[in-house]
Amino acid sequence: MAVDITLAPNAVVGEIDRRLFGTFVEHLGRGIYTGIYEPDHPTATPEGFRGDVLALVRELGVTTVRYPGGNFVSSYRWEDGVGPRTDRPRRLDLAWHTLETNEVGTNEFLAWCRAANLELMMAVNTGTRGTEAAVDLLEYCNHPGGTALSDLRRKHGVEEPHGIRMWCLGNEMDGPWQIGQMTPDQYGRSALDMARAMRRMDPDLTLVACGSSGRSMPTFGEWERVVLGHCYDEVDLISAHAYYELEDGDLRSFLASGADMSAFIEGVVAAADEVRAARSSDKRIDVSFDEWNVWYLSKAIGAGPRDWPVAPRLLEDVYTVVDAVVVGDLLATLLRHADRVKAASLAQLVNVIAPIMTEPGGPAWRQATFHPFSLTAAHAHPTVLRASVKGPTIDTAKHGTVDAVTVAATWDLDKQHTQFLANRDPNAPQEVILDLREFGSVEHAEAVGVYDDDLTAVNTANAPERVSPRLVETIVDSGAVKIRLPAASWVMLRAKTA
Ligand code: AHR
């Protein structure tokens, strides 16, 4: 049975906010040190950033970067990371049980963001600190001058304010692993105070309240309702985090992870809209999906260091073809919710559960998951269309019955189309007929994808291009395109109509 996908110009989901192609860098493992920063590396810039990594970050096409954590931020003192490097303290990082040298801090990271052409999404510490530290950091970063903290920044050699627009009010404050975990009432009240104070300095900031750190959290739903019950009028977005992994060889459930992400987004939106209705508010709170990825978390639990090393190899997952298919489908899921997901961060960027890997003093390379992300960021058109998909379903143990083929359809309101397709069936290819008749006749179509007979294939320092995008044949048939999606594949199909 073929899969029929029909698109029409008036079935619009919404416009893509380019902040949806964001990412995340945490002071964790080798994310910073020997990841983005390595002054002795042969490609190092005068500021000590790895030039090879900068080139790959630009190629990945990311737009924003969340920093400095993550769990790390919940005991971070931002003051440790500014001023002369020789004066910066070495501190125990309680989140990851490592030693933080503070060689890289706010100003260095912002210089790196400028070099990589990324917008910074700054997270503040709501674990061991609160409103005072947050407004101090805001003044240090964004105030032009003439005050204690803005002049301190200038004294530190940064004359112009950084102008950071996006601020996360803490990280995963619902999680028992989080330093300073709170109840939804405690966090909602403290987010309200913090947001109000920050807005006194700058009413136009984009503020993100912590949502649930997973759909399976026992407080999910209630957390969003109570937190937003406190701070609805003062924040713009509520966060969501989700990680997926292949467990017990259950490929069907793993390949259908996007179904869980979809249900999660819809749950967060429903909770936010419930608060909106209860307040008769005209304002809408959207979602910042600011941590998402494949992460072999079950292998990482309890495997952390005990002896406070500096920048150890932590969470360095090596991604397979099937992981890349899932990452592509998760990103397509975010696109399908472009009406309500207005920011997102692939977690993370370099070395730590990352699309880019490095060796100290050695090469940097693209993991398999790099490819669906970079192709989507480069080729997604601004408008997402609601597709009608008629085809076979597959039964999964974790997510029930799901469509075997998914699509995120993007269009530029002219004649250019890019579709991001996934075949979630691990055993069978799928014949797809993409009907574009509503747009006219198809002049041209081409496709590339990530697929392989060996679903466990990976890229390594020695074989950095083992998993790379491969051509997929397309057949143009007047107003339609026919394409065969290999089993367990992610495919980008581009077409032009006349
Ligand atoms: O991305 C790794 C960790 O996952 C982050 O520090 C934390 O926010 C989440 O639990």
Terminal-residue CA separation: 29 Å
The low-pLDDT segments are none
Spatial shape: globular
Largest sheet: 8 strands, parallel, barrel
The fourth-level CATH homologous superfamily of the largest domain is: Glycosidases
Strand order of the largest sheet: 3-4-7-8-9-10-11-12
CATH architecture label of the largest domain: Alpha-Beta Barrel
Ligand inventory: alpha-L-arabinofuranose
Q: Please give the domain count.
A: 2
Number of strands: 26
The CATH class assignment of the largest domain is: Alpha Beta
What would you call the structural class? alpha/beta
CATH topology of the largest domain: TIM Barrel
The portion of residues assigned to helices is: 25-40%
Radius of gyration: 23 Å
Task: Report on this structure.
This protein is of the alpha/beta class. The protein has 2 domains: 3-9 and 384-497, Golgi alpha-mannosidase II (Immunoglobulin-like), CATH 2.60.40.1180; 17-379, Glycosidases (TIM Barrel, Alpha-Beta Barrel). It has 11 helices and 26 strands. The strands form 6 sheets. Strands 3-4-7-8-9-10-11-12 form an 8-stranded parallel beta barrel, surrounded by 5 helices. The two termini are 29 Å apart. Alpha-L-arabinofuranose is lined by residues 26, 69-71, 171-172, 213, 291, 347-348.
